[in-house]
Amino acid sequence: MRAAISLYSYKHNDGERRYAQGKGVGSDVGCIGVGCCCGGICQSAGRRDARLRHFGRVRRKTRALDGPVSIASGREQRERVTHVHAMIPVSVQHKLLVWLSTGSLLILFSAGLLSKASEPVWRWTLPAGVSAPPIPADNPMTAAKVELGRRLFYDADLSADGTMSCATCHEQKHAFADGNRTHPGVTDEPARRNVPGLANVAWFTPLTFADPANTTLEAQVASPVFGIRPVEMGMAGREAEIGVRLGRDSCYQVMFARAFPENGGRIDFANVARALASFERTLVSHGSAWDRQQLSPDAKIGSTLFARDCAACHSGPHFTDSAMHRLEAADPTFADQGLFEKTGIDADRGRFRTPSLRNVTLTGPWWHDGSARSLADAIARHGLTHEPAETNHLIAFLESLSDPEFIRRKSLGMPSEACGKPL
């Protein structure tokens, strides 16, 4: 199955923004050509097209003040600089350039650098009894990193041809999964595994279906960006290009300076990964009916069945033991051998990590390869026998794990502006 794709561009100031648009065709899933995995339009059977715009390359000039600021020397100069900075709202600080004249020397300060010492510490908003996730010592959480990571999450310039962003496959309305069985990357190479949801990913380790070494969000970013089996975003061997692309945008220059003052706001993949990881740690979901203890009668019956038949593996507040299990007979002829591909141990064939069940009704189709088309099918493939009524009760319980506020939270969606300007 293929779909029509058209790329268009328009000028914005001195830069060009690119979007992808198209319409999927076919009985299963339709998406735009090479950008299917992340592209602008995806369609599942019986669903409307889901249009998702992605940022292409954007280059903008930073506005200067209406005129130069006249600053005296010595103490008066320092006092005036402090006063001017204190009077500048945060949204305006992003785009102000303050010129200081001292004799023949001109010193350029960006507002982001002026305020680096006052960058607010990140404050978690979590329900009672939920502890903050572990944070790497070399990547402490700050609001500036989260803001930068959010923009990068929706930026298609992280892919080879500018058609694919993180959000292409991780859509908020699907709890940051995408609603399709699998998705190809920028080369149109078929994918092997279903896109998992990202709710509460900050607490997970390991992070992927079958790689026990993939334990930090910072390191995991490299898998989709540089991976070759399969190719997703297609940037293998082109790491330096990422910094060059983003560095052309004056707003990104300010955002990186604010987020990473300790290394001079360096625009490179290492800082991109740190910012993306910081944003992904804010994908917190604890607003389900189960969290509120407001289960329907059917869900209450289902919770009893779940505790009996499912909770051994789908355990804890995230409904996963994070271990790798085999639920179907191992077959050396299968294209995806799971954990075996990393360990080479024959007993690991067909082992995959237990997925979280939070928002599970929003993240289908299910199974590591997306081959379970319904929750009833997924339940049946666990090898247990349930009467139809019991299956319905289990599904009612699984529905109680959905968090409607999470998929509408504006702070997690595509940003509409950066540095005080529309995107």
Tell me what you see in this structure.
This protein has 423 residues and is of the alpha+beta class. It has three domains: 74-118, no CATH class; 122-284 and 410-422, Cytochrome c-like domain (Cytochrome Bc1 Complex, Chain D, domain 2), CATH 1.10.760.10; 289-399, Cytochrome Bc1 Complex, Chain D, domain 2. It is built from 15 helices and eleven strands. A three-stranded antiparallel sheet has the order 3-4-5, with no helix packed on it. It has a two-stranded antiparallel ribbon with strand order 1-2. Strands 6-7 form a two-stranded antiparallel ribbon. A hairpin with a 2-residue loop joins strand 10 (417-418) and strand 11 (421-422). The longest helix has 14 residues, at 74-87. Residues 1-118 have low confidence and may be disordered.
